[in-house]
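Protocol step 6 of 9: fold each sequence in the batch and record its structure tokens directly after the sequence line. For illustration, a two-sequence batch is reproduced in full.

Sequence one:
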Amino acid sequence: LTGHEYQCDLWAVSGGVTWNIANILLCKGIGMMGNATGFPLCVGLGMVTGAIVGYVQDTESSSLSFLIPGVLVALCGIVAVGFLSYRKEQELAALADSTPETESSQDSEEDSGTSSNDVDVAVQKQEAAATNPGMARKLAVCITGGLLLGLSNIGVGKATSEPCKLSPYANQTYFSVGVFLCSAVMMPVITTWPIEGGKGTSIFFALRGHCSVGAKYHVLAAMGGFILCAGFFFFNLGNKPLSLTITYCIGQSAPLVGILWGTFFFKEFAGTSIRVKGLIPVVCILFASAIVLIAAAG
């Protein structure tokens, strides 16, 4: 952990800060768009950005004949995810609009004095439209998170290459310090001014409700953080024998896992047509092909 110039430690810390901001945006993107679309859109763009950043820092360890097609295929996957999300939002919005009309028509047959119900439904829809983020905000959050996710490779690459050459354990330690410091600053900011829009609150008010959440959910959140940090640690270990570009991109197989979780476990495409669901295997094939091509570049 010691024996390096302080600039080397700062590079690792800066990588952790950038990575943590990206993951905050990723979590917000997942909350707004779902696992199956928000995750691959953000992390997929991070894979492309990280591949470019890694190659710029180390041009000799990757073959452009495979790297460029891999990046292009990944970009196609990102575009496909964006189109998939757009079609899903359209169909679910149309389904939500038709449901109140059906219910109100059934109520009117039973009771002629239900005009107030229609007014209540309209008011609720207006309130939901005012608080729900638009597609432009959702895309902006995911795209910004993806760009920052890839740009975190700058700090990691500088810290682990010449002249710093931090070990995986030292890089992980200083990287984690950056993550912690960033969280301490960002949490009050994003509670006061929510990224997804809407009314904010103070961090103290949010912490007061912390104990009202069940212990199971605290354990699940801690497990998620531990698993994510463990994944980055293995990325650190693979960074030496492989190149930064190849190790990072192989580690970004997460979009495929996110799509599967969102589709089969969280049922995020329930109620959509085959035209939407048929795009899911297309997205999976594109991302899988991109990962194979980029891995072959090493």
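Sequence two, same batch, same settings:
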Amino acid sequence: SLRKHISFSFLLVVGLPWTIFDLLGTKVLIGNNQAGWLKPCFGILLFVVLVTDAFATWRNARQASAPRGEPAESAVTGTVATPELPSDQGESVNTLGHASCNDSAPASPCKSGKAAEPETLPFDSFQNWRCCLALGVAGGLLKGLFTVPMPVLVLFVLFSGIDRDTWRANVIVMCIVGVIPKGYYLFFVEQEMEWAKVPQFVATAVGVVAAIPLGNFVATRVDKEQFKDIVRLFAFVGGCFMIAAGESFQLELSFASLVLGLIIMCRRWRRAKDADQAQGEGVSLRSRRVSEGKVTYFGAGQDEADDLSPAAGAELSDAKV
């Protein structure tokens, strides 16, 4: 349950300035909803989102490809993963080159069939008050002005060291609680409430409630990376459309960006498919080597297969891959 991860200090240091600057950004939006600079600024923000996402993807890929034996910092939790022990320290090696559980260690977490997770310290909002305050101010302002605080959220998760469960639990509470003062401000202070549109508000609320289980259902049947690419395509085309708002070439630029984005997306999908096929062929090759009593040690600088002794071969056949 995420309830045990709710931090009142986080809600105070982040949630309070977030709510204040969310209202301030909303006020600026209402006073300048017809301003010519608003749409181009929103387009620039969408490109900032794309750049931030590209940086986060590059950072995660760099950490995933870090040499074995070197600790790698987690992109989400900020923790340091423990490097694996070499095979000569009392542990057998499976065909993928990872250390498996030793029967002589009954307290090993691998006995339960689950990998050991790196230990994380509780996130101290007061000790990291500068990051939290920056998140509250910048995130709230972008939320109120453009309803897109993603760049600030991504940067905070990457560099603050907050763990995933604490982040998820507190962001949900902060968003729910922030709706109350914003709704009061829009409906009663700014007099933006139109009773004739109440059926539309109700339909929107019902649609959101119905979309949650539908989204969970679809998420299990859609490739995550392909869905991310589709969202990136929408952000790229939308950014071009907004930046060129009011210009004579707006439609031409939007169409050209759509074609370019589709070409890039299709090439990415093709490369990913080829990589999966190559990986499948590599797994088949390693399986044949194992069946012949050979195993390749990865990460030790050896590309050739070493013959196993009969005892080691029997032990390998009993190991779970």
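Proceed to step 7 once all outputs are recorded. Observation for sequence two: The chain has a mean pLDDT of 75.
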